[in-house]
UniProtKB/TrEMBL annotation:
This is Elongator complex protein 1. Component of the elongator complex which is required for multiple tRNA modifications, including mcm5U (5-methoxycarbonylmethyl uridine), mcm5s2U (5-methoxycarbonylmethyl-2-thiouridine), and ncm5U (5-carbamoylmethyl uridine). The elongator complex catalyzes formation of carboxymethyluridine in the wobble base at position 34 in tRNAs. Keywords: Coiled coil, Cytoplasm, Nucleus, tRNA processing. Residues 405-706 form the ELP1 N-terminal second beta-propeller domain. Residues 730-776, 784-889 form the ELP1 alpha-solenoid domain. GO terms for cellular component: cytosol; elongator holoenzyme complex; nucleus. It comes from Clathrus columnatus. The lineage of its organism: Eukaryota, Fungi, Dikarya, Basidiomycota, Agaricomycotina. SUPFAM superfamilies: Tricorn protease domain 2.
Length: 1287
């Protein structure tokens, strides 16, 4: 909301002797700042360069003299450091280009003239942001635009600026909307033909007539503002100096010009109304409007106007006395802030509103600034120079959510505990000015609270220029005691000015702090700078009267260094040096107690609830740092490197981060203290705590923390669009529940758990002993607790008064997990015996709690018909439905009756046991019941001691297994049930041929039956690729040598096949079956080799294409999303409560809808393997690895085949040679190919689960090198070749 500002004072040496700084430049590589001063001496100009060292002192760097064009100053048009050549380049008005190289740290070198721009003189020159171009405007009479190379200073293009051409992007006019096409009524057709006289427009008397150049941040375009025909004209050029657009004519447009770095808007200034003190000879034509109105106006790249905001010129603290300034001041320059010759104003924008945040005047004899420069890399660093020296944050209110926004001479106040008012609106405004005194924006603001955890009263103090201080008491209307429509009550307690002892010295006041003083008073601390050193001025105020404070003392404490800041603290003063050292300020002394790793622009102090030690939190840019005032803490801890905002919310430190995703991170202060206590030897100072250590919540991209209200468990976020959202994060809710339980405020804790869907068990788990002790006095609590707590509650109720707490006792049974319905119904039976007058109400209550059908079934399952009738008669069941059913059950014998009841309740195992107890007459029914409900194992267990019935059930189970094709298990079941026929069929189906033939011979089957079985078994074995076993069956049980050899050849059992041939003297098979089989096997292996070779070539070529794509299109290859849309939550989980402003506009949310449909999930899964990405590369590497496994199989087959090929004919010999050569070539190709493929991917990293999930992980813990995820395959050292073959 408010932008904290920091100012450093740099002393100018006395040796300037009339020089004044006209240009500043910064070296981004070293961080040094160079100031260039100049002084006219007749026809020459003396130029001096100064460097600002680490101690913020200016040291002379070099001194040179150049010829001056005229008596106009400054003579230096442009000064910049060129990074590529490491040199300072000056462009002088005369056209000279001077260079000096930053080679020597001791300086004292000189400028060299490397060229001259002609025709001169030069009136404007600016380097592009990437230093690839230098745009120059020469000759005021005939302005010429030149584009030069900053390295060689060669002219790339040159053309006159003044032209009638609109530019390459000129709009096409088809005549629509022109005067000739309009209806003119009674004026007739002549009105359509009448020429339109354009309105005359001019610039203002304050225009300096000089051209201006401003580049866009990406250096693709630049804009030139030229004074032409008494008015300002803006022209937009591309990086080749080709005219693109000419801006629309704007009356009263002035010379300031600045293109927003992100390229969206071009800023300038515009005057309205009449020119003061103008005579008849002056013919000014400004824009019509309010007299004295002065705007900052914006243009788009196409030249069209795009918004504006009003400068608050009536609120300037100083006015110029220079006569030619008609309005008393003028805007000298724009750099996304307003810089005049009298003061500097800083403006920020939020939610389409511009806030005047700060203005500060120059000091010295001339009371004016000479130059200014924004730092090229640090967006919050502004460098200004004058002839003399130059001229917030605090801990926010703890539990009111009070927030203050500075807007010019007003403070916009909103208490977010009671109201959620979106900016730029506010609950109320506190004016800082009165009709007799105009007040500038405050320099700094500080808050404090006497009792932060409970108070709704805050105290605020403001520091103004000149040492003016004001202190207010602000009461937030929580209970409407102030009036229903009054959100705040503001009372001024004290105002005054710092008493300066030495009026001859200039003192810079830049920060204020507020801490309690004794019990009722306050200490206001002001950080000032004097002679380069910081000084702390402490003003002690004591209370006098109910709402009045008086000055007690003013004391000064000299600080050892300059450029320090106060750390936001609630009760102590802590000062931070420029290098991050921390000091505690007590009375008139300071003592060090810790440090940050670097200076933190925003810092605050907090204490953990379990330890009195102070924890210091600091933020520098996007880095969040923590340290503590403990002996064991030796170094600070970096919590995040992508932090955008943070706050203290109760016992949590909360910050927003952008990496690995846009989320809010919640760190308990106790946990943070434990992390700080860890051994510093285990990590380096640059280590960042893993985000997995903390609780997180996804937020919208670009959201920042505004404030928090711990007692309401709310966190207020501001979205990039400017709107506010209030969320109630789960960690803050649980933290508040713990506080309520600790204070025995169980009702508040219970309501919070129910509202935010937090498990009620938390009420017990926080402190079980305390909760158990408070149960008798807290009987109104909901019994939705764990089973042990339910039993304890029930026992207490039964002990106190069983008649009084009947309903609570029944509830305790019902809410157990799982619900104990049987115990609850048993309690009803007990109640019927001892207290029959309470039964009716008790039954009605339990029927109200539980579905009556469920109670009916439970009572029936207890086999108590009286209990069933008791439940049924108090329910809405129709007696005509349940009475006949109960009569039919009651008529059965007890075991069979239980069977029917359990079967009705679908308690099938229990029903089977009841059926077994019913006797042998029901055994067949039991078998059918087992088959129907798949109760085979239960049946075997029930009848295991009844031999005959057990065998029957086992045979039944075997049939079940046989139907499920579990033949081996079925065979064992049939064997135990003594059914040999089914046993042999199951063995044959299971291809357990050894046991099958053993049983066949044991059963004395005839030879034909055995042969028939053998043929079937051999064919099935061969079909299952079990060729060697099939050959064994052919040999042993059929004596079929031909089929046996054929099977052995198919199974590549070459040696066994030759042995069988020789053993049976069947050499004819060697020539036909064996010889032919070896050639067929050689051909099959060669086909496999060719297929592997083809796949390898395709995959290697595709991998080369992917490598090129990885270098040329990395975003597409790695699956990166559009950065402008990255990590946007379409449906944020942040909730926004209705307010006074949104009560009629709140729309239903989509929080209950599914955030990802099954269709989108399938789409995400398909995305994981899409072509042209890292997933495809990983898949191809895995495929290449599989080729190595196939090669090992081929090598094994070849190793068995080659010895037999070389023993046969010459044809077989040639086949062996070709097979060995092709396989050797493939092996070498795979070896060299794998070296090339994996060697080229040593530095490629992927997420661990990238291939499976298709997600893009960014956390370092989820990243692994691709060659580690898909390891390089290695060929085995198996010897398969015949060494002499092929020689």
């Amino acid at each position: 909301m408010n932008t904290p500002l920091y100012s450093n004072l740099i002393h100018l040496p006395d040796v300037l002797n009339g020089h004044f700084i006209t240009t500043l430049t910064t070296d981004s590589d070293t961080g040094k700042t160079y100031a260039v001063s100049e002084q006219l001496n007749g026809e020459d100009v003396n130029v001096q360069v100064w460097v600002v060292n680490e101690d913020q002192n200016m040291i002379p760097y070099l001194d040179s003299i150049f010829p001056a064009v005229d008596s106009i100053t400054p003579q230096i048009i442009c000064c910049s450091i060129i990074p590529d050549t490491r040199s300072i380049c000056l462009i002088l008005r005369s056209g000279d280009i001077a260079i000096t190289y930053l080679e020597h740290d001791n300086g004292l070198s000189s400028f060299d003239i490397v060229g001259t721009i002609s025709p001169g003189p030069v009136s404007a020159a600016v380097f592009s942001p990437d230093y690839s171009r230098l745009a120059v405007v020469t000759s005021i009479s005939t302005p010429t635009l030149m584009l030069m190379d900053p390295t060689s200073f060669e002219v790339l293009s040159s053309a006159p600026i003044i032209t009638s051409d609109f530019g390459e992007d000129a709009p096409i006019n088809v005549g629509w909307g022109s005067k000739a096409t309009q209806f003119h009524g009674t004026l007739g057709k002549q009105a359509a033909k009448a020429s339109i006289v354009p309105d005359r427009s001019t610039s203002t008397p304050d225009d300096d007539l000089n051209p201006r150049i401003s580049w866009r941040g990406d250096a693709k375009y630049f804009v030139v503002s030229l004074f032409q025909d008494d008015r300002r004209v803006l022209r937009v050029y591309d990086h080749q100096a080709k005219l693109q657009n000419t801006a629309q004519n704007v009356a009263g447009l002035e010379h300031p010009l600045a293109w927003r770095p992100n390229g969206s808007l071009i800023a300038s200034t515009q005057r309205f109304g009449n020119v003061p003190n103008s005579d008849q000879n002056e013919n000014w034509a400004l824009e019509k409007g309010q007299e004295g109105r002065h705007d900052v106006v914006f243009f788009e790249r196409n030249g069209l106007r795009h918004g504006e905001f009003h400068l608050r010129e009536r609120k300037l603290t100083q006015k110029s006395v220079i006569p030619f300034r008609r309005w008393g001041y003028r805007v000298h320059n724009l750099a996304w802030n307003a810089d005049s010759s009298i003061l500097i104003q800083l403006w920020t924008t939020g939610n389409y509103h511009w806030y005047l945040k700060l203005e500060f005047p120059a000091s010295g004899d001339s009371k004016r600034f000479t130059t200014m420069l924004w730092h090229p890399e640090d967006p919050f660093r502004l460098l200004c120079a004058t002839k003399g020296p130059l001229s917030s944050t605090s801990l926010p209110p703890y539990d009111t959510g009070l927030l203050t926004v500075v807007d010019g001479d007003s403070l916009l106040l909103t208490p977010f505990r009671t109201q959620n008012v979106p900016p730029p609106m506010s609950s109320c405004q506190l004016p800082l000015s009165n009709p007799n005194q105009i007040s500038p924006p405050p320099i700094d603001i500080a808050f404090s609270t006497k009792t932060p955890q409970t108070s709704t009263t805050d105290f605020m103090t403001c520091l103004f220029a000149g040492g003016i201080i004001k202190l207010w008491c602000i009461r937030t209307n929580i209970t409407h005691k102030l009036g229903k429509n009054d959100p705040l009550s503001i009372t001024e307690l004290w105002n005054g000015r710092i008493h300066e002892t030495d009026l001859t010295k200039f003192t810079l006041y830049r920060q204020i702090g507020l801490v309690p003083h004794h019990e009722t008073g306050w200490t206001i601390a002001i950080v000032s700078n004097e002679n380069g050193k910081d000084k702390l001025i402490c003003i002690d105020l004591r209370q006098e009267g109910e709402e009045k404070l008086v000055l007690e003392t003013q004391r000064e404490i000299n600080l050892p260094e300059g450029r320090g800041r106060l750390v936001d603290s609630s009760n102590t003063l802590i000062w931070q040096t420029a290098d991050g050292m921390l000091f505690e300020v007590e009375d008139a002394s300071i003592s060090p107690f810790g440090s940050f790793s670097e200076f933190c622009q925003i810092a605050s102090e907090v204490r953990a609830p379990s330890h009195p030690a102070r924890i210091l939190i600091g933020q520098k840019s996007s880095k969040l740092i923590a340290t503590a005032d403990l002996p064991g803490v030796k170094k600070p801890l970096t919590l995040s490197r992508s932090c955008t905002s943070y706050c203290i919310a109760g016992n949590y430190l909360v910050w927003t981060a952008t990496s690995p995703s846009h989320e809010a991170v919640f760190c308990q202060l106790d946990t943070l203290l434990d992390l700080l206590k860890k051994d510093p030897e285990t990590s380096t100072s640059n280590d960042v705590v893993s985000p997995d250590s903390f609780e997180k919540r996804r937020i919208e991209r670009g959201a920042r923390i505004v404030t928090s209200v711990p007692s309401q468990t709310t966190l207020v976020l501001q979205m990039p669009r400017g709107n506010l959202e209030t969320i109630m994060p789960r960690p803050l809710v649980i933290d508040q529940v713990k506080i309520d339980v600790k204070n025995k405020n169980y009702r508040s804790a219970f309501l919070a758990c129910r509202k935010h869907r937090v498990g009620i068990n938390l009420l017990v788990e926080i402190d079980p002993k305390e909760f158990m002790e408070n149960i008798p006095t807290r009987s109104e609590l909901s019994p939705e607790l764990i089973n042990s707590i339910c039993d304890r509650i029930r026992e207490n109720f039964e002990h106190i008064n069983i008649q009084k707490f009947v309903d609570s006792i029944l509830t305790a049974y019902i809410v157990k997990k799982p619900s104990d319905y049987e115990a609850g119904l048993s309690f009803l039976l007990k109640l019927r015996e001892n207290h029959p007058d309470l039964v009716e109400d008790a039954v009605k209550y339990i029927v109200f709690l539980v579905d009556v059908d469920k109670l009916f079934d439970t009572a029936l399952g207890m086999y108590d018909f009286s209990l069933v009738l008791l439940v049924a008669q108090y329910s809405k069941k129709d007696p005509r439905e349940y009475l006949p059913f109960l009569r039919s059950l009651h008529s059965l014998e007890i075991p069979y009756q239980y069977f029917k009841i359990d079967d009705y309740l679908k308690r099938y195992p229990k029903a089977l046991k009841s059926l077994q107890l019913s006797g042998s007459d029901h055994f067949e029914e039991a078998k059918a019941y087992v088959e129907k409900h798949n109760l085979y194992k239960d049946a075997l267990n029930l009848w295991k001691h009844d031999h005959d019935r057990f065998k029957a059930m086992l045979e039944l189970y075997g049939d079940y297994l046989f139907d499920r094709r579990e033949f081996k298990e079925a065979a064992l079941a049939f064997m135990r049930s003594s059914n040999k026929g089914k046993y042999m069929v199951a063995l044959e189906k299971a291809l357990e041929w050894q046991d099958l033939f053993d049983t066949a011979y044991a059963e004395n089957l005839d030879k034909e039956e055995i042969s028939s079985i053998a043929y079937r078994v051999a064919e099935n074995l061969s079909a299952k690729q079990r060729h060697i076993e099939a050959a064994r069956v052919f040999m042993d049980y059929l004596n079929d040598i031909d089929q046996a050899v054929s099977c052995l050849v198919k199974g590549a059992a070459w040696s066994e096949a030759r042995r069988i041939i020789s053993l049976n003297d069947r050499h004819d098979l060697l020539e036909f079956s064996f010889s032919t089989g070896t050639l067929e096997a050689q051909s099959s292996i060669r086909g496999e080799i060719a297929e592997i070779q083809e796949l390898l070539e395709k995959q290697t070529g595709r991998l080369d294409e992917l490598s090129a794509k990885r270098l040329n299109e990395p975003d597409t290859f790695f699956g990166a999303e559009d950065p402008s849309l990255g990590n946007i939550d379409v449906m944020t989980d942040a909730s926004n409560p209705g307010t006074l402003f949104t009560r009629y506009t709140v729309a239903p949310t989509a929080s209950d809808r599914s955030k990802r449909t099954s269709r989108s999930k399938r789409k995400l899964d398909r995305k994981a393997g899409r072509k042209g990405t890292i997933q495809e590369e990983e898949y191809l590497l895995t495929s290449v690895t599989k080729l190595f496994a196939r090669l090992e199989t081929v090598k094994a087959d070849t190793k068995m085949l080659l010895p037999h090929l070389v023993q046969l004919s010459e044809e077989h010999m040639e086949a062996a040679e070709s097979l060995q050569k092709e396989l050797s070539d493939l092996e070498e190709r795979l070896r060299t190919g794998s070296d090339q493929i994996w060697g080229a991917r040593e530095d490629v990293t992927v997420p661990i689960d990238q291939f499976q999930k298709g997600n893009t992980a960014t956390s370092e813990s989820e990243i692994v090198k691709l060659i580690h995820k898909v390891p390089k395959p290695v060929l085995s050292d198996t010897t398969w070749k015949i060494s002499w073959l092929g020689l």
